[in-house]
Design a protein that fits this description.
single chain, about 525 residues, alpha/beta, Nitrilase/N-carbamoyl-D-aminoacid amidohydrolase, six-stranded mixed sheet, globular
Length: about 525
């Protein structure tokens, strides 16, 4: 297989991987994508890539994947932003590709006699199984690294987030997104192993047996996840309202329209109050506004505070308000979510400050040199992270809060539920990204989080898409994008929490450890024996 052919198939793998995410949303595309990754990295028909070639293959896969996944990053800033992010993320896949070649060489017999020349079938099967699990673990390790470092990481594009409509989704409740992604990588990898073994003229029956065994194991895990005990079953219902006020214009200048955005949310909430008074909708226990709904701080602006208080009193319910609060230190601010109760002397009864803030958007690493080189960098925010636990209390209910970008991080959803949150609120503002797939990719993440912790998820979006998601991941209600709307729904609370919630970071640690052990095993194995059977390219 010439290098140019491998690179073309690597690009196809990246495209297929992107197709598993919205807007295409073909969950199953992740399986042939991972299979192709195995095929292009593995020894096939007389040649095998070295680690440096594997790095190039991984880079091409990653570059195509992220260019197709996140073009919205450069929607209003410029295409260079999407290219820059894609190149950086592709470097992680380059590191993955370099290590994966070593693992696959060991698993497919490259530094020893090939199975066709008389090696014991049992040894061949056990080594291939170890390599398959190692491949999936090595993928998981690099997903975790790029989701954590540097500057907090960028978890967008994790395999699990493309499975919101797939049959493997229940696995999220058993081991979280790490287990779900690991199983997807294993199943796709098994398909790739089958292709490689057939190309190397292995016995078709043995290949089929391996595929069936892998599939049966996955089905068994899904069955266990489906039957696993949830949280407490003493449930009750709660009436909630989500307000989507919309913005006057698209693009980066929406923040210059703060008064108009606030007025939009006040108007839609007042219309909801009219409907409640008319008896056409039930009176909500909670009203959720989105992120940036009132970037005019209601703490500093008496008019804004009085207007929100009046609506809270009229509805007889607290309003959760997304706002920006100055810290008092130069230009620093927090991206905050306030529980605003207009009946209290101090209307702010609880507060969450966004902990996972977006680098190059909400804050700028290396600010001085970047601002000198790129004038557009001056538009990056001066936000600082909060240090709370992600839980707020309103109307006698504990809510977890993951503001926009935060929902991509495992701990931002897990820790509030582990601390007793019965709902997960995702206030978000996607107006900057227009009608791009970004908002739908975030919706898919929220659906995975709902299943992961068996918790209702409420997305309140400034411009869309607002949604009510059940603990099973189904979207119960959804607002149109860039349309004012008020979603009123009854949700069942009291059963939040799953095995994934209780295990915390253990599944992630185990999957990463599998990858590290596999690489060590493969590296030691290849070092012990000379290469006599396969020509490298």
């Amino acid at each position: 297989m010439p290098l140019v052919v491998r690179l073309l198939w690597a690009a196809a793998a990246g495209a297929l991987l992107a197709a598993s995410f919205p807007p295409v949303g073909l969950w199953w595309a992740a399986l042939p994508a991972m299979a192709l990754v195995v095929v292009v990295l593995a020894p096939v028909r007389g040649s095998t890539p070295r680690a440096r070639t594997g790095a190039l293959i991984g880079f091409v896969t990653g570059l195509v994947f992220f260019l197709l996944l996140v073009p919205w990053v450069g929607l209003y800033v410029g295409a260079y932003a999407a290219w820059g992010l894609s190149v950086v993320e592709a470097l992680y896949l380059a590191a993955f590709g370099a290590g994966a070649t070593v693992i696959l060489r060991a698993g497919l017999g490259v530094r020893t006699q090939l199975p066709a020349y008389g090696e014991r079938p049992a040894r061949t099967a056990s080594r291939a199984t170890a390599a398959l699990l190692g491949f999936a673990g090595w993928w998981s390790l690099w997903e975790w690294i790029r989701s954590s470092w540097p500057w907090g990481g960028f978890p967008w594009g994790r395999l699990a987030f493309g499975q919101a409509d797939g049959p493997l989704l229940p696995l999220a409740s058993l081991g979280g997104t790490p287990l779900l992604g690991f199983v997807v990588a294993t199943l796709g990898g098994a398909l790739g192993f089958a292709v490689v073994l057939l190309l190397r003229r292995s016995r078709p029956g043995r290949v089929l047996t391996g595929l069936v065994t892998t599939a049966v194991a996955a089905v068994g895990l899904v069955a266990v996840a489906t039957l696993a005990p949830r949280g407490a079953q003493d449930t009750r219902t709660l009436d909630v309202a989500l307000i989507q006020g919309n913005v006057p214009r698209l693009g980066l200048d929406f923040n210059a329209q703060r008064r108009a955005v606030l007025d939009n949310h006040l108007r839609v909430t007042a219309q909801l109050a009219d409907d409640v008074d008319a008896g056409t909708v039930p009176r909500p226990d909670l009203v959720l506004w989105p992120e940036n709904a009132s970037d005019i701080s209601p703490l500093a602006d008496q008019r804004a505070g009085a207007q929100i208080s009046a609506l809270s009193r009229r509805l007889g319910a607290p309003i959760l308000v997304g706002t920006v609060l100055a810290t008092g230190h130069e230009r620093e601010a927090t991206n905050s979510y306030l529980v605003w109760d207009g009946t209290a002397d101090d209307p702010v009864t609880d507060r969450h400050d966004k902990k996972y803030i977006q680098p190059f958007g909400e804050w700028l690493p290396l600010r001085k040199p970047l601002e000198a080189l790129f004038p557009i960098a001056r538009t990056a925010g001066h936000f600082v992270p909060g240090d709370g636990d992600g839980v707020v209390s309103a109307a006698g209910v504990d809510l977890g809060v993951a503001i926009c970008f935060e929902v991509a991080f495992d701990s931002a959803a897990r820790e509030p539920v582990a601390r007793g949150a019965e709902l997960l609120a995702v206030p978000t503002n996607n107006a900057t990204f227009g009608r791009s797939p970004m908002t739908y990719q975030q919706l898919a993440m929220s659906r995975v989080r709902a299943v992961e912790h068996h918790v209702p998820v409420l997305i309140a979006a400034t411009s869309g898409v607002s949604a009510v998601i059940g603990p099973d991941g189904d979207v119960r209600q959804e607002a149109g994008i860039f349309e004012p709307a008020a979603l009123v729904a009854q949700v069942e609370i009291g059963s939040a929490g799953t095995m994934a919630t209780r295990l915390g970071g253990i599944p992630q640690a185990v999957s990463c450890l599998i990858g590290l052990v596999a690489l060590a095993w493969a590296a030691l194995g290849t070092r012990r024996r000379p290469d006599t059977e396969i020509e490298e390219n």
